């Protein structure tokens, strides 16, 4: 039996695929044996994808690619490519065979694509991040249940954790172990069956509708399925602008400028604001779902930009 998995998760692909074909703008830009493509990519887009994946064993900033921009008549990746030259915009390159094992790349500058461990010009060292001892979120003996007329199913019980300023905490477990229910309960979207959620020094009401605007602004959730998180009848501009109005009190004209700024932070073209969710890819919708719920209270876009810097 032959299988053709289609995925955005390179870690999964690396474990199950014998060969990898990398697509960009509707065409294959690199193809070859999985191990060879992942360890020695020869197309700038493939290299950029791999370098944008966080690695907990290595310290350093993720290498972000420039924004999408308008696609030229030649190579579709040219506006985002640091190696691009004038010839890249005149004609779409033909596939180049790099060896006899089927490693092929659509690029005229394959010899200039450096190894993955090299430092690109203009890249920066990740700023040092220190953890403060101040506890931002304190979850105490949390219990979450799913109730019906006939039974009560306990999704999570006696869950306690603390999150300090500067920390990123990952909640890991098998499918059905209660991760999503815990997250929804903390956000006030699922009833609390027991325990407390303390934000700073304030114990939060269980129901998000009883929380203050500041509470709702400080704890937000990015849903796993972006297709269900966005209203299919709303434009992307409306989906991003409405939280800015409700949570920040912006006027009627201010959200338009804020939508443009936020789209730029996640490397989406400005005209995306006029589109509807059904006109976007899954990855684009996930970026929209992220940026409409990111902490918008910062006076500088740098915090948002750091979070969005790895958007492929």
> How many E strands?
8
Rg (C-alpha, Å) = 22 Å
Largest sheet: 4 strands, antiparallel
Main-sheet strand order equals: 1-2-4-3
Oligomer: single chain
The 3D shape can be described as globular
Q: What's the mean pLDDT score?
A: 81
Instruction: State the helicity in percent bands.
Output: 25-40%
Strand % is 15-25%
Q: Compute the number of helices.
A: 10
Low-confidence stretches: 119-128, 296-312
Terminal Cα span: 32 Å
Can you tell me the number of structural domains? 3
How are helices and strands ordered from N to C? HEEHHEEEEHEEHHHHHH
Content-based structural category: alpha+beta
InterPro entries: AAA+_ATPase, ABC_transp_ATP-bind, ABC_transporter-like_ATP-bd, Oligopep_ABC_C, P-loop_NTPase
Protein name: AAA+ ATPase domain-containing protein
Keywords: ATP-binding, Nucleotide-binding, Transport
Organism: Actinomadura napierensis
What would the keywords be for this entry?
single chain, 312 residues, Rossmann fold, 3 domains, 10 helices, 17% strand, globular, disordered C terminus
Describe the fold and architecture.
The chain has 312 residues and is an alpha+beta fold. Helices cover 26% and strands 17% of the residues. The protein has three domains: 103 residues, no CATH class; 86 residues, 3-Layer(aba) Sandwich (Rossmann fold); 91 residues, P-loop containing nucleotide triphosphate hydrolases (Rossmann fold, 3-Layer(aba) Sandwich), CATH 3.40.50. It contains ten helices and eight strands. The strands form two sheets. Strands 1-2-4-3 form a four-stranded antiparallel β-sheet. A four-stranded antiparallel β-sheet has the order 6-5-7-8, covered by helices on one side. The longest helix has 13 residues. It starts with 9 loop residues before the first helix and ends with a helix.
